[in-house]
Design brief:
Shape: globular
Distance between the termini: 47 Å
Helix content: 40-55%
Strand content: 15-25%
Structural class: alpha+beta
Largest sheet: 4 strands, antiparallel
């Protein structure tokens, strides 16, 4: 309910985790360049574009909190509003290694966790709950697209 407080809290937790991982890395003699699962925290202002259709970016996003939601659009037409904490988006471009197929804009103030594309394999192998959420999200979008296509075909006769 309070995105700014949430942002500060998560930023603090991430900093503490990173310091802890650095200490563990030195103790366990792990390579310095090993990637750990922890996204960057990004605060988005109302009206700010997070993803623009057609751009060649591949970060993955997870909603931490949002006042109103995130508007998903394609070709200028609004397709959906994402507003559930934990909801993941942007994974299609990362998985397919293609340009963005839709735009995402913060309607109100939002706080997101941003994952680099190279973290995708680590996320999928180490975090089964997030993997399942990504699979469900992609499946839901595919089912919705299939329903829309079937409806359009019925209308065309």
């Amino acid at each position: 309910q309070t995105p700014r407080l949430t942002e500060l809290t998560f930023s603090s937790v991430i900093r503490q985790l990173n310091m802890g991982w650095e200490k563990l890395s030195r103790i366990s003699h792990q390579p310095e360049d090993e990637v750990f699962f922890a996204g960057d925290i990004r605060s988005c202002q109302p009206g700010e574009w997070i993803i623009k259709e057609g751009e060649a970016t591949s970060e993955i996003y997870r909603i931490i909190s949002t006042e109103v939601g995130l508007e998903v659009s394609k070709g200028g037409q609004v397709l959906a509003v994402l507003n559930e904490p934990g909801e993941i988006f942007g994974e299609m471009a990362s998985v397919l290694q293609e340009k963005r197929t839709a735009s995402v804009r913060s309607i109100g103030h939002s706080v997101l966790e941003v994952y680099a594309p190279q973290q995708l394999l680590e996320i999928l192998s180490d975090y089964s709950d997030i993997s399942l959420r990504i699979i469900k999200s992609l499946s839901r979008r595919l089912a919705e697209t299939s329903r829309t296509l079937a409806e359009l075909k019925r209308q065309d006769g």
